[in-house]
From TrEMBL:
Keywords annotated in UniProt: Lyase, Zinc
InterPro entries named in the record: Beta_CA_cladeB, Carbonic_anhydrase, Carbonic_anhydrase_CS, Carbonic_anhydrase_sf
Function: Catalyzes the reversible hydration of carbon dioxide to form bicarbonate.
Gene3D superfamilies to which the protein is assigned, alphabetical: Carbonic anhydrase
Organism lineage string: Bacteria, Bacillati, Actinomycetota, Actinomycetes, Kitasatosporales
Protein name, entry field: Carbonic anhydrase
SMART domains, per database record: Pro_CA (SM00947)
This enzyme's EC code(s): 4.2.1.1
Catalytic activity: hydrogencarbonate + H(+) = CO2 + H2O
The species this protein was found in: Streptomyces tanashiensis
PANTHER family in alphabetical order: CARBONIC ANHYDRASE, CARBONIC ANHYDRASE 1
């Protein structure tokens, strides 16, 4: 991990001084405008893709960029969504899937996940996506990635804080697919998003 120490030193020496004013403000103000829900895949870096400064994105990352439908009780995704919408007042929520997603590949190809039971249980939140993607036979990973983004947007709308903000016109939902190989970001059409978000 020596490269981390070198990176931190370079940040403190070269990057931080140029953004000292921004960090001084961020030390007392936290007002991101967008909640970005993406995959924990190391190749998908929200701030790099969107070229945003610190403080602009509130980020949730997990395997498969999944958002469980709202249920009673708390979990990390639900708590983070609620905090972003109800406390921070984000105006936009992006669910971003990506090409070559390991989680979606495992589902599409029916990988044996018995050695990773927590992963298998977590990926059950993509069951609806898989069912839609395999309606005509076997699932294509690219199709499943898109279906999964649409399904997670629908799940977001089940969260009370999001439903209230959508009904009041205070938040907009966006579905993106990032292509790792060519760097493009495709926004899913409104038809692929929940009715309240259109």
């Amino acid at each position: 991990m020596p490269h981390f120490a070198e990176g931190i030193a370079r940040f403190q020496r070269e990057v931080f001084p140029a953004k000292a004013g921004l960090f001084a403000r961020l030390a007392t103000v936290h007002r991101p405008g967008t909640l970005f829900i993406g995959c924990s895949d190391a190749r998908v870096v929200p701030e790099l893709i969107t070229q945003t400064d610190p403080g602009e994105l509130f980020v949730i990352r997990n395997a498969g960029n999944l958002v469980p439908a709202h249920t009673p009780g708390a979990d990390g995704v639900t708590a983070s969504v609620e905090y972003a919408v109800a406390v921070l007042g984000v105006r936009d929520i992006v669910v971003c899937g990506h090409s070559a997603c390991g989680a979606m590949t495992a589902l599409a190809e029916g990988h044996d996940l018995s050695a990773a039971p927590a992963v298998a249980a977590w990926l059950r939140h993509a069951d609806a996506s898989l069912a839609r993607a395999t309606a005509g036979g076997t699932a294509d990973v690219a199709v499943l990635v898109r279906e999964n983004v649409a399904a997670q947007l629908a799940n977001l709308a089940t969260h009370p804080s999001v439903a209230r903000a959508l009904a009041a016109g205070e938040v907009r939902l966006h579905g993106w697919v990032f292509d790792i190989a060519d760097g493009t970001v495709e926004e899913l059409p409104a038809a692929a998003r929940p009715a309240l978000a259109a």
